[in-house]
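*** Residues and shapes ***
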Amino acid sequence: MKDLTPTRTPKRVRIGMVGYGGFGRFLHRSWSRLEDVEVVAVADSDPTAEPESLDRFATWEALIEEPSLDLIAIATPPNTHAQIACAAMEAGRHVLIEKPLATTREDAQRLIEVQARTGRRAAIDHMLRFHPFIEILQDWAVRRPFGALRRVLVENYAQDESLPPDHWFWDRSISGGILVEHAVHFIDIVQACVGPRRTSVWGRSVRRSDGRPDRVVMSVVYEGGAVMTQYHAFSRPGFFEDTSMRFVFDLAQVDVQGWIPLSGRVSALVSRTSEGELGRLSGLYDVRRVLISEARNLSHPQDGAARSRRGTDEDSVISAGLRYDVTSRIDAGFELALSKPEVYSASLNALMRDLVRGIRDPEHQLRVRLEDGLASLETALEATDAARDPIHT
């Protein structure tokens, strides 16, 4: 077996990319803004795919054996991820794997075993964990300034105009299906908030007349009681593409818009200590603050009149059987002053910086580990198996 003991800490991490389609090129453009990494080589089946400035390898097998490379970034169809990543780690390279980690539990577990044996650093591209809005929501779920996270809803409408019937996306043996290829991003967000342990998983799919399952729905109940539901449709014109996510806490509801979120709205019942949390959301606007004693409560008679006076309980509410002290209700919008590509690149770069830190510091625990990718994959596979008997239209 090769001696995989690191002999140097590279000044700049030299990256070889396997796959240089549209997404691969976007990764390259994003990472070109980082000072401590450099994309230097590519292996792609399209000989015209890469710029002249990159070294070209005819096969990924040849690329991973190039001794000058530190990291292999894998942006190929999902069913190839495990084979390439395992071989790259065996060859002494660190790896960054596009989601999903793999398409089967066995391949994902093999990746984890090879990573542990070789000591290489390996991350998966669950870049939404590094999005500024999502980072705040994850922190709130852990620290609970607004109580527990009870519910997450995801609605995703995507076009299929660029996905002809023979595209690998529709072939479950290659993509794993919509829930594996696409929904794992959002599954991972929820698991980062409440943990991966689940008590039940449910799923259903709907097929169009040519047999393609283009609409899927899944629900998961996690230990602790959080409930997630996702609906994904690859069936609408591009004009209607839309993704929304709702996070329901005991004392707050946060809606974010876009699969790369750029804006959203928050409604929260705050105390003197929790009110400052809302200031962490970028670009707050249309902020409306009402004392809790004067806020409308639609569960009360008289069409949601102001709260009835309750003596010493006037500044408290009950949610999920728990009493919380609150002073005000705040409603506001929030938005990032950046474009979607800029936010996408920033999130990808934050993930890459975390991986580079892990390459340089053996004690650093990566924020997205292979075990996280396995957990989201297992949930997606359980829901896919539950949806095996589809509805036909």
User: Anything to note?
Assistant: The first helix runs from residue 22 to 31.
